[in-house]
């Protein structure tokens, strides 16, 4: 029996910069608490432009998790937080009932022609927290434990894995590990969580003999350790956790356990209701609701 339940190749789009969307997908809408997965870039942005900037926009019911391989982004939000995101660091922004944030490419990254390359993930908040207060936490690269196993280098971003525990505070059991492995290397993927997936950022691997190419998300079997082998130098992400507490509706930037919460957020954002979606200090722009 194969260790891979589904292979998701994603949809490539250009939203001002190239992205590949892996979740939600027809084969798997969620993996653990992860409900959204975008692979962005790599892309260079011209100096003196605003290409790649994401203007202020709202979220409810989710936590955003940003992880960069290269470049940088400047985060600003309605809590008053201003944080430069750099490779290896983790930004954990829990929207709760409502938050507004922007993500912009720093001028020095544009001027130096540094490619921006990374992953943007959304984690569904438990129902007990989806209407709670917004929270932002930043963890520098040095805070997350690293472990070397043979030819593999692993950076434990959330959860417990490979004998290490991340300091990132999550709302439910969440697995997120960045890894590199050299050609010829092997690694055993533990079965510590009920739901797991492996994404190949660059390179290629086999999982119990089945090949997974770059740009592919492999949804893994629920039980048992899985043998990973790299024929070439490879960058990958291991993600998952425990299932979320019930189905979620996802519409635009909103995630909720009921359609009513989605509709209320639409009305609040269109009406610029500052009690739910406060303004970001220093920002004047905003992205209106999409037509559909």
Description:
The chain starts with a strand and ends in a 22-residue tail after the last helix. The chain is built from two helices and 26 strands. The model has no long low-confidence stretch (mean pLDDT 96). The chain has a single domain (4-241), classed as Jelly Rolls (Sandwich), CATH 2.60.120.10. The strands form six sheets. It has a seven-stranded antiparallel sheet with strand order 1-22-19-24-17-14-13, with no helix packed on it. Strands 2-3-4-11-6-9-12 form a seven-stranded antiparallel sheet, with no helix packed on it. The protein is mostly beta strands and 292 residues long. The relative contact order is 0.20.
Question: What are its keywords?
Answer:
292 residues; Jelly Rolls; seven-stranded antiparallel β-sheet
